[in-house]
Amino acid sequence: MNLREMNWMQVEAYLEADDRIVVPLGSTEQHAYLSLFTDAILAERVALDACAPLGVPVCPVVPYGMTPRFLAYPGTISLRRETYLAVLEDLVSSLHGQGFRRFVFVNGHGGNTPICSSLSSWFDEHIDCEYAFHDWWRAPETWRTVIKTDPVAMHASWMENFPWTRLAGILQPENQKPAIRLEQLQGATPEMVRSYLGDGNFGGCYERTDAEMHAIWAIAVEETRQIVAAI
């Protein structure tokens, strides 16, 4: 269930039988030739697809995250850690006050992952709650399928190029880009990051077949569904 397509009375009725809710976490940042909203699109969609048969509501995706290294790319928006933590704490506090007790965060951006340890303090203070933090693309079977499909799978490469993250009229390069050495980015300013990356792809092919991408997606949805079902 998509929370944006429900009214408050429907949510209240749901809470009479269940107290789970899913919160997709995204980012607005450069993804080479793909949408700036790629991480948000993928987090929300995998959450919605996973929850559809379970009847668990999914919040609108949080579209901003922590992505300071890409600020030299126009359109990238980054929150400070303390800002991001405050947003998430306010979000769960609001939902907790209404009766939600089991939270699944479906994360689509690696830069957001460190917030999990900070957010755990809120849950330590609310012992009536449970939560799971799920980096959907890093789930074991999903990642195994990604690497089996093509071992060079990096940011803004083919692995994020789904039909729903592409932009109309934008063609993808046909070449395979040499992979960046990640240590080059350690301590680099946003301007240095842009000079290293150029178009923003970390390396590898820019796209693979839709059949391959749909196969990966099916596994990602199933692993996400298992997380939600288990909490």
UniProtKB/TrEMBL annotation:
PANTHER family in the cross-refs: 2-AMINO-5-FORMYLAMINO-6-RIBOSYLAMINOPYRIMIDIN-4(3H)-ONE 5'-MONOPHOSPHATE DEFORMYLASE, 3-DEHYDRO-SCYLLO-INOSOSE HYDROLASE
Keyword line: Hydrolase, Metal-binding, Zinc
Lineage of the organism: Bacteria, Pseudomonadati, Pseudomonadota, Alphaproteobacteria, Acetobacterales
Lineage top rank: taxon: Bacteria
GO terms of biological process kind: riboflavin biosynthetic process
Cofactor: Zn(2+)
MF GO annotations: hydrolase activity, acting on carbon-nitrogen (but not peptide) bonds, in linear amides; metal ion binding
Family to which this protein belongs: Belongs to the creatininase superfamily.
Organism: Acetobacter nitrogenifigens DSM 23921 = NBRC 105050
Protein name per its UniProtKB record: Amidase
One protein family per Pfam: Creatininase
